Amino acid sequence: MTIKQASKWASEYLGRNVTTSNISYLIQYGRINRVTENGNTWINKEDLIKYYESYHGKKETEWVRKLGDDLNWSLSFDHLKESERTKHVHRLHPYKGKFIPQLVEYFLDNHVNDFKKDVYFKKGDTILDPFCGSGTALVQANELGMHGIGIDVSSFNALISNVKTNKYNPVDLSSEVRRVTSTLREFVSNSNTVKFESSLKEALVNYNTRYFPSPEFKLRVRAGDIDEEEYGTEKENDFKLIYDALVAQYNIDLSLEDNGTFLNKWYMKHVRREIDFVKSLFEQISDQDIRNVLIVVLSRTIRSCRATTHFDLATLKDPVTSTYYCHKHGKICKPLFSIVSWWVRYSKDTIERLAQFDKLRTDTHQVCLTGDSRTINIVKELEENDQFLARLIKDQRIKGIFSSPPYVGLIDYHDQHAYAYDLFHFERKDQLEIGPLSSGQGADARESYIRAISEVLNNCRKYLANDYDVFLVANDKYDLYPLIAEKANMQVVNRHKRPVLNRTERDKGAYSETIFHLKG
Description:
Elements: H1 3-14, H2 20-28, E1 35-37, E2 40-42, H3 45-53, H4 55-67, H5 82-85, H6 101-108, E3 126-129, H7 136-143, E4 147-152, H8 155-165, H9 170-188, H10 192-211, H11 216-223, H12 228-250, H13 262-266, H14 269-281, H15 288-304, E5 324-326, E6 331-333, H16 340-360, E7 366-370, H17 378-385, H18 387-395, E8 398-403, H19 418-424, H20 443-461, E9 464-474, H21 481-487, E10 491-499, E11 512-519
Parallel strand pairs: 3-4, 3-8, 4-7, 8-9
Antiparallel strand pairs: 1-2, 5-6, 9-11, 10-11
């Protein structure tokens, strides 16, 4: 069959609309084979049947059934490996609710297809992200030769974004990392913690090898030969006797000082001492940009060193100071007793990622401003932070917006980085968050959300070019965005609905989000 014939056949076979772009996507990403003869592309019907009966095909069909046949599956980017979705600086620090860089590229670059029929931005344009988050849009604007302005109410979010896009002297950065690392290692070298953890690791390896052999243990659990909950609890309790003996032998203090601060609740005393020690070393760094990089590295490090289980790292429950059966890894695991290994890993990774991005960056300007997008005077703030961009948008104005506003009642954005706010004393402005988790998703919360997002658009519209394009990524389950657009004197001219894959390990259900295209 030709691609057009395959589109028609697949639509009848599945009972839903399958476009020629859908078929081309399957060819492009190796889902089905093709034969080219005399310039024509031919597809074997049996290949299509095999695909639609496969895991991926059934998943696509099932999701379309649940979410609607207007899904643009090519926008799922499910062909990409995780390393591509988190390329270079996009993985400098964890951040809930960020979109993948390929989604930004899709709408900012100059390609067209059956879904994206026009080119909206070109090199030299300026892009605005009024909900900048961790700076994904700014980084991709730079890659594509565009200027980028971000705004975020969270000072820590702004720091992450600016660390990603700033340029550094690699020799000076590496030198400071080596200094901090060697000094930290010297600080912990004679502590009982190092000796304790070494003995604990050896005991865990021996115990797990005996009682949780890989992959035999997981295979037996899946086959139903072992009751994972019962067996895991039994072995957890057995190993606790070994653990307690080592704690007593090395005189390890497992206590937490829960006095109301995040750091005291979620970090054991000896871990806190290492954290505070590393932070004190930053005071000797004269280059503020390099200091900011190391702040991000330390923040990423201490996030991984909280006194919790591996499977509760993203959503904390109760502090854990003992070994435990880990459902994620299928063996007995332990909390962290030192930050050294994670500091070494993340500092090295950060230097490598900054170097990777440096090879791709263009000679453009990006900056994330800290402020409330509903009221901020963008020009005034740029005059203090980037005078080039201030002059540029006075002359050319901003070509458009690409952003993902916070969803209603989903995330408390300051709380997700509470450890960094505690340690570095960033000013918290929780009261200015739009749609926080703490406000819920009721009628009042939705009304407040509509008002706030429309105020952001109305304020930002003052700086946009006449022929602007606004793209907003949202899971609009309450159908709020048509009213938001109306209140902002804009119109929804198109919607691109995409399936969202790889959300979290525990949530793999059908889920979609819509990219709303707005114009004046």
